[in-house]
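#struct-queue
[09:14] JT: dropping the first one here, sequence first, then the structure tokens:
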Amino acid sequence: MPTPVIEISGITKAYKMGEEVVGALRGVDLRIDRNEFVAVMGASGSGKSTLMNILGCLDRPTSGRYILNGQATEKLSAGALAQVRNKEIGFVFQTFELLPRSTAVVNVALPLVYSRKFWWGTARRAREALKSVGLGDRMTHRPNQLSGGQRQRVAIARALVNEPSLLLADEPTGNLDSKTSEEIIALFRDLHQRGQTIVIVTHEEDIAGHAQRIVRLRDGKVVSDFPTATDPVHRDFLDRAAQASARAAGQAAVGSESRPTHESRAAQTGGSA
């Protein structure tokens, strides 16, 4: 059986809001094996952001177990959790979270400052990470000199520079146009093919379709967990998209046939073509 990178069981998370206790997660079980590419989906309030914070060791569960790459994390101190984040997890955010006055290579090297394993040769590792995402010619550029897609590539390079066991991406295409989103997702697919374990949190069905597997949350619980090819919600999305495309193509064809050509207009008016 493949080695799990993520193994959580019975995870709950409750927040106290005034006199009321709100359950954000209600007994979540999830296993993600090494080199899987998983999309986590859910409507607002479903618990997916809370789950991401726990997976990223940014928050602790109220109860349950979370084992990350063989290490139990739910009872670690804040300092120990920070070390786990730095060693095991690469983060990619919707808003890039880059230092605006620093160059791309400085932004990418930042996690290495706190790394016990890779503190030596930080600039070299940062340059290699930028080259791996196709930005070898943008190392000295600052964020305001880069396009949105290039800024997200810098963020991905920063997430990879520590060789994490898990790449965790929160709405990584949310601030990008369609063409740039496709380029970023193509990069994620390439990273997955190279062996990277990836969890992407998204509300976009077409983006989730690039993952191997889709986990759906509702009201703090996992309501479905299917390979993407057999996920019934995704299959329905693809069917509706195909029908809409066929209708649009048919309407375009009808419009083209009914539009009089220059020659037919000339014939109808008795003029010459």
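[09:21] JT: and here's the second one, same format:
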Amino acid sequence: MKRLFITLLSAAFLTSQLGGCGFPTHRNSSAVKEEAAVEYTAENVAETMKAALKGFGNSTEYDARISQSVIDEAVKIVQHDCPQYFWLNGYATTTTNKSTSVSFTVLNDYTEDELRQMYTALDEAADDIISQIPAGSDDYRTALFVHDQLIQNTRYASEKTGLSYNGLWGCAYGCLVDGSAVCQGYAEAYQLIMQKLGSECGVCSGISDRGSHAWNYLKLDGDYYWVDVTWDDPESESDEGSLRHNYFMINDEMLLRTRNIGSENYFVPKCTSLYSNYFVKKNAYFSGYSPEETGRVLAENADAGVAEMMFADKDAYKTAMTKLFDEQEIWELPGSPELGYRLTYYNDDNMYVITINY
């Protein structure tokens, strides 16, 4: 579920009579330059908004009439860049022929003192996860650790999906402090932590085969990837199974199997690489079904008791499903450990993933 954002517009038009006078003859070119109106762009308006929000000020004023399109773009930049300002719930623009003011609506009408305390709690919760990152982790393992921690410590707020109003469940605070969130909350929490770690990370949204949805992009070693923390949480499907990695570091083709990307997004990267895909890194990404390779993956993950594997296309995936489960090859794989009789499996027909618990 994407977070709703409300825009309120108001305008006060002032008129004045203009005489037939030109510029005074004593005004020189340097004076004219000094008095020229500031050119407000979406980028510099966004920077003033960020500066105000950093001090828990929820309004900005400008000494010129700024078009609504520039204001809208500036707010979009702030939304895109700053998940830490979780309380933003809409904005109102007031203009005259000489000035513009923008006022942000505060979620749940929190006071400044309440926001300061909540901001501190959010910052500390993010830092707590960062402090647990294993020493020596590279950028990939760090991104994976944060992904797993969010899933393990967040309850998917299924009862909040489809609501027509916003709440803390739709922002980073809900995910990291309250431990309960919908997709927007998961995504903004992941963005917040990865930004604090110095990575380029943002949120994109669109319509999925489950409805309105939000997820992340992450830049790693020069390439962009998609990450959907929510859909890797089995609770998002009312499943009690293990956390998954089906949507960790995937490319455009994989992402677009289950959703489209909305035109309102501020930035949409091109994600073409699979170099840092979870299954590629785990040596569990296969172009075809192999009993030997499947047995190896099971053996390598015996201590955890969970083996995940992804197939490059639908045909290879269907062959694996048929051989392993319809024809019962799962019990006779070369090199496989003892599986016992409590084996269960989960299969994802969209991502061509098989997860075996044993």
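[09:30] RK: nice, looked through the second one.
[09:31] RK: The longest strand covers residues 211-220.
[09:31] JT: good to know. The two ends are 34 Å apart (CA to CA).
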